[in-house]
Design brief:
single chain, two-stranded antiparallel sheet, binds uridine-5'-diphosphate, Carbamate kinase, 9-stranded mixed β-sheet, alpha/beta, 234 residues, 19% strand
């Protein structure tokens, strides 16, 4: 395996699949199969899951809700997704721990860096819920920060597209996928890979990011093995 310790970022929005419900059981099932295949190769895995399928802080003001309050609502949304993912992974026989950036002792452990690393060493999948625990951040920044804290080898950003393109591949058929990019190139070309906070954290700490299609069967394992798929930013 190319990577021994991986931080996988999953978006909340992708959990919706094509259904009208917040969580599509088929997507959850597919995620579990992908994750299980990687876990069977003894890769240490931590996961950050977003909350966009339920609530984003950015939506708050239009609803007459205070922005900071909205951000906390978004963080709570990520815990709902994290709990769903935890339960689904356990149904597949995987060992997991949910750690959150906001104290919620009835449902999860608080985030304690050394404890998170210990869980990983014991081969438990660690899911980080509630983001960083502070408003005005995103789960992308959480993914970068936690990845640095647990000394992950790479951040794998699972999306619905198979990498970073010269332009929107859904609108422009002549869009070309980048196989690799430097942080500088991605910045200069204004490619929207992660928000600036998340992106800069990775750049400054020389933490590579791979953007890949999480919905393609076998893709996660392929990437963990070091095969070329998606876009590598390093
Ligand atoms: N959020 C936050 N601080 C954090 C992480 C998340 O305030 O550290 C809030 C923010 O409002 C965000 C929402 O939680 O919009 C859901 O996360 P995100 O939008 O990153 O989810 P995704 O787009 O990955 O589904």
């Amino acid at each position: 395996m190319k990577y021994k310790r991986i931080l996988l970022k999953l978006s909340g929005e992708a959990l919706m699949g094509n259904k009208n419900s917040n969580i599509d059981p088929e997507v959850l099932e597919q995620y579990c199969e992908e994750i299980k295949a990687v876990k069977e190769k003894n890769v240490q895995l931590a996961i950050v899951i977003g909350g966009g399928n339920i609530f984003r802080g950015g939506q708050a003001e239009a609803l007459g809700i205070d922005r900071v309050q909205g951000d906390y609502m978004g963080m709570l949304a990520t815990v709902i997704n994290a709990m769903a993912l935890q339960s689904a992974l356990e149904r597949h026989g995987l060992y997991t721990r949910l750690m959150a950036g906001i104290k919620m002792e009835q449902v999860c452990e608080p985030f304690i860096r050394r404890r998170a690393i210990r869980h990983l060493e014991k081969n438990r999948i660690v899911i980080f819920g509630a983001g960083i625990g502070n408003p005005y951040f995103t789960t992308d920044s959480t993914a970068s920060l936690r990845a640095i804290e647990i000394q992950a080898d790479v951040v794998l950003k699972g999306t619905r597209v198979d990498g970073v393109y010269t332009k929107d591949p859904l609108k422009f058929p002549d869009a070309v996928r980048y196989k690799t990019l430097s942080f500088q190139e991605a910045y200069e070309k204004n490619l929207n890979i992660m928000d600036m906070t998340a992106f800069t954290l990775c750049q400054e700490n020389k933490l590579p990011i791979i953007v890949f299609d999480m919905n393609k069967k076998g893709n996660l394992l392929k990437i963990a093995q070091g095969e070329e798929a998606g876009t590598l930013i390093s």
